[in-house]
Design a protein that fits this description.
Order of helices and strands: EEHEEHHHHH
Distance between the termini: 44 Å
Number of strands: 4
Shape: globular
Strand content: 5-15%
Strand order of the largest sheet: 1-2
């Protein structure tokens, strides 16, 4: 029998939603196996999720798993922060649903102009 991820969305005293993930899928004393995380993220490729606050549709492209695994931010992470990022990937749909504070920032790196229509 497959164990279901237990997840709760709670609201703090300021009304912000907080996603609580109690199932720790990616464990390790020193390092996270980002290849495992990348393979797990491939389950989301091709799916579209709605941000409740803005009704925006977010499409998960086939480059997302590699982008997350190979990002400069991911390479710098270690310890608890790396584990947090890896385990947060379990609930991408819920995190997108609860996303707030939409803002836009131009991408200045050339690599982004190839894939993203608006930079």
């Amino acid at each position: 029998m497959k164990k279901e991820n237990i997840i709760d969305i709670i609201t703090d005293e300021d009304g912000r939603k907080i996603v609580v993930i109690t199932d720790i899928r990616f464990k390790g004393k020193r390092n996270i196996d980002w290849e495992d995380v990348e393979n797990y993220l491939k389950e989301y490729v091709g799916k579209c999720y709605e941000v409740v606050e803005t009704a925006d549709q977010v499409f998960i492209g086939n480059d997302f798993p590699e982008e997350l695994k190979g990002s400069e931010d991911t390479k710098r992470l270690c310890g608890a922060n790396a584990k947090t990022k890896a385990n947060a990937t379990q609930k991408i749909p819920t995190l997108l649903k609860c996303a707030t504070n939409k803002r836009w920032q131009e991408n200045f790196k050339g690599k982004h102009k190839v894939d993203a229509k608006y930079g």
